[in-house]
Amino acid sequence: MSRSVFHLPPCGGGWVGGHCFVALYVSILFLLCPLPAAAASLEKADRCVERAEWAKARAQYAAVIRNGGLRERELANLGIVRTYFLEKDFQGVLRTLRQLSGRVPENKNGAWMHVMGYRAARTLGWIEPATAHVQAIHRAQPSFSMAEIASHLAELKKLGLLNALPPAWTDTLTRTARHEHFLLAESLMSLEMHRSASRIWRLLVAGPPDEIGRQSLLRMGQALDADGESAEAERYLKLFAVLFAEDPRAADALYRVGRWRRASGASDATVPYMLAAEYHPATLYGAAARVDIAWSWPARDPVRAALRALRETPGLPDAILERGLALALTHPDWLASESDREWSRNRYRLSFPLGPLADKTK
User: CA quadruple 106, 109, 115, 116: dihedral positive or negative?
Assistant: First the structure.
């Protein structure tokens, strides 16, 4: 029912007048409360996004901002930023966030706006706004779910944004003060003074998202991981995977998250392992993730993927190599070909001649 056709009946006395008063009270509430059309407009906007109708989606989100409640307006602002991001209009992303100014909430929705702002600024090569958005993310201290991270990485891959960092952003190790502080933290870490090292890395993370900032974020997560601070370690490691998804060290972060989630019995424990294996297959932790997946959920395809990772990843530690080769020797019928079986037997015999499965190589 639209407000333009809402009419009150004429009021009389007694019983009729009482009901007329109730009708008047209801009409006042009707005028003061936002219409359910706001929620419907969010749904319409989301459908426009699915069809890549960016301008129509933004019009729907704008209607929500005019008529919706606080929660709806927050989601609509996030939706507008996301439409520009998916359209690869990165200046539109940054322009929208500038217009919002201090109205970006310091919660998970606001953090996702800043993630897209950081990625947009980085793609344009604008380090100042990129730094500002990363600092805002750290202030919000978000805890992203694995489903959200997986969806974000898939979008980055679809948009072709999983590229190496611009050279100008990686050449900052010559910034003497930051470099010296980083080396001090590394020294403290080698002495197992994890908390002292973390305090230094926390300060370095607050700077620009250059090589020192990236390393400090990962090292802080690793230090907390070593101290058994699983919840805080997971938050920093997830953030590294979100902000620096193209960095091969993201596999390290994801693998550690997967290990903690598996230890806690989380239902999504396989997701970080799968992401490490999918986006960084030829890395130490990508290969380790493939091997762990195949041992935990043995089947033909995981075993084949694990063996492929062993063959394509040079320099693997003996522990990972032996576990992976043991898969092939335990499930030879699942391998793709006789050449894979022969390679597995020869590699095991060469690397572990006295290993527990040496007899199977004969």
Answer: negative
3-state secondary structure of 336: coil
Q: How far apart are the C-alpha atoms of 101 and 89, rounded to whole Å?
A: 19
**Selection from 224, 223, 216, 233 nearest residue 189 by Cα:** 223
What gap in Å lies between CA 356 and CA 362, rounded to an integer? 13
pLDDT digits (tens, 9 = 90+) for 65-87: 998 888 999 999 999 999 999 99
Whether 93 contacts 81, CB under 8 Å? yes
The answer to whether the Cα torsion of 104, 107, 108, 109 is positive or negative is negative
* pLDDT tens digits along 207-261: 888 888 999 999 999 998 988 888 899 999 999 999 999 999 999 999 999 999 9
Residue 30 CB coordination number (10 Å): 12
Q: How far apart are CA 44 and CA 57, in angstroms?
A: 7
**Closest of 227, 225, 232 to residue 252, by C-alpha:** 225
| C-alpha to C-alpha distance for 125 and 105, rounded to whole angstroms | 25
Exposure pattern of 183-198 as b/e (b: 16+ CB <10 Å)? eebeebbeeeebebbb
Task: Read off the pTM.
Answer: 0.83
CA atoms 109, 110, 113, 115: torsion sign: negative
Query: Number of helices (H) and strands (E), helices first, in the chain?
Result: 19, 0
- Give me Rg for the CA atoms of the chain: 27
Nearest partner of 153 among 67, 277, 33, judged by Cα: 277
Indicate the angle between helix axes 338-351 and 300-312, nearest 10 degrees. 60
Residues 6+ away with beta carbon under 8 Å from 22: none
Nearest alpha carbon to residue 271 among 255, 282, 283: 255
